From TrEMBL:
Pathway(s) this gene product operates in, as recorded in its UniProt entry: Amino-acid biosynthesis; L-arginine biosynthesis; N(2)-acetyl-L-ornithine from L-glutamate: step 4/4
Top-level taxon: Bacteria
InterPro entries for this protein: AcOrn/SuccOrn_fam (IPR004636), Aminotrans_3 (IPR005814), Aminotrans_3_PPA_site (IPR049704), Class-III_PLP-dep_AT (IPR050103), PyrdxlP-dep_Trfase (IPR015424), PyrdxlP-dep_Trfase_major (IPR015421), PyrdxlP-dep_Trfase_small (IPR015422)
Protein known as: Acetylornithine aminotransferase
Additional facts recorded: May also have succinyldiaminopimelate aminotransferase activity, thus carrying out the corresponding step in lysine biosynthesis.
Enzyme class: transferase
Gene: argD
Length: 392
């Protein structure tokens, strides 16, 4: 890298490291230094960096067909939709339909528009305080983080936020008959890996059924094996009306999806929604290879097994107050609000994690992480926590 000023818009803080290659759970910077990646591009490269099956799928598809637009069908799109539908059904066809897009925010935009179409006259979408659904205006309006919303007001109307894991507040918000959908994360990722109490999501599903509102579950960060099930809602035995997916779907290739029960999805008519690049052959080839490999390797079981080892080790580290989350999506609550200092020092020590909150570290390593890599990361993090002990 040269020392000239960056020509990128300043939407992110200046990057402290420039990564140039990766393999599995390892990253290498432009000086050749090795790092353990325990963030996975924020729960994206769940099969690890440069997975050979995904790399070969991309290379082969690039030589075959890159783009035809959604005016025409491709076999790839149909295959990936079928694979996703099976996983939503926990191994059996769930009977839904899929819209492909390019990101999690776009998947949630599709869900919001679908709710308006499927529940006409009931335009309100209820979401939760602390939630994160994306940075487009519609997804941002659903996001329950005022600090992210304030610079871009006024936002689109028709959204209400209620406290997470608070059923009475949700019932009050749904009391006027204007609510067409409830949009929730099964575990709030950007809020610091916040889990609701057992039974909450199931109770929300029941209230939605009683009110005739759609239950839309944002699985952008939690989906595709990361929590120890294919989707986090499956821990509660819930059957959502709409599920949004992205991040891990292409193992780094940009692709998102909105799945919906057939009777809900059929509220869309030709021309209601669309995308130029959504589900195009290159991204779909990556998604097919990713999902097939995840199924072959038993990704949820691997995440659950490695997650237990990681969780147990984290609980014994100095300065750790609690460990939240499931599988390999873990939030480490610190005794002091020093998460930023810890992530900075961890990077210097060769470990990639991040801090979604001042007192919380987030760990989301690839689902194929080995026991040795878990133990190495725990050793690095333990040393960092000792060196950064006390407030900062």
């Amino acid at each position: 890298m040269t020392d000239r000023p960056s020509r990128l818009m300043p939407t992110y803080a200046p990057a402290p490291v420039t990564f140039v290659r990766g393999r599995g759970c390892e990253l290498y910077d432009d000086t050749g230094r090795r790092y353990l990646d325990f963030l996975s591009g924020i729960a994206v490269v769940s099969l690890g960096h440069a997975h050979p099956a995904v790399a070969e799928a991309l290379a082969s598809q690039a030589r075959t067909l890159l783009h035809v637009s959604n005016l025409f069908r491709t076999t790839l799109g149909e295959e990936v939709a079928g694979l996703l539908d099976d996983l939503v059904g926990d191994g059996q066809p769930a009977g839904g339909l899929v819209f492909f897009c390019n990101s999690g925010a776009e998947a949630n935009e599709a869900a919001i528009k679908l709710a308006r179409r499927a529940r006409p006259g009931r335009p309100v979408v209820v979401s939760a305080v602390g939630s994160f659904h994306g940075r487009t205006l519609g997804a941002l309006a659903a996001t329950g983080q005022p600090e992210k919303q304030a610079p871009f007001a006024p936002l689109p109307g028709g959204f209400r936020q209620v406290p997470y894991d608070d059923l009475p507040s949700l019932e009050d918000a749904m009391g006027d008959g204007q609510v067409g959908a409830v949009l929730l994360e099964a575990i709030q990722g950007e809020a610091g890996v916040v889990e609701p109490r057992p039974g909450y999501l199931r109770a929300v599903a029941e209230r939605c059924r009683e009110a005739g509102a759609l239950l839309m579950v944002d699985e952008v960060q939690t989906g595709l094996g990361r929590t120890g099930r294919w989707f986090a809602f499956q821990h509660e035995g819930v059957e959502p009306d709409v599920v949004t997916v992205a991040k891990a779907l292409g193992n780094g290739a940009p692709i998102g999806a909105c799945w919906a029960r057939r009777e809900v999805a059929e509220a869309f008519e030709p021309g209601d929604h669309g995308t130029t690049f959504g589900g195009q052959p290159l991204a779909a080839a990556a998604a097919r290879a990713t999902l097939q490999t995840m199924v072959e390797l038993g990704a949820p079981e691997r995440a659950e097994r490695a997650g237990r080892r990681l969780r147990e080790g984290l609980r014994g580290l100095p300065g750790v107050a609690e460990v939240r989350g499931k599988g390999l999506l873990l939030g480490v609550g610190l005794e002091e609000p020093r998460a930023k200092a810890v992530t900075t020092e961890a990077l210097r020590a060769g470990l990639v994690v991040n801090a979604p909150r001042p007192d919380t570290l987030r760990l989301a390593p690839p689902l194929l992480v080995s026991e040795a890599e878990v133990d190495e990361a725990l050793g690095i993090l333990g040393g960092v926590l000792e060196r950064t002990g006390g407030g900062s």
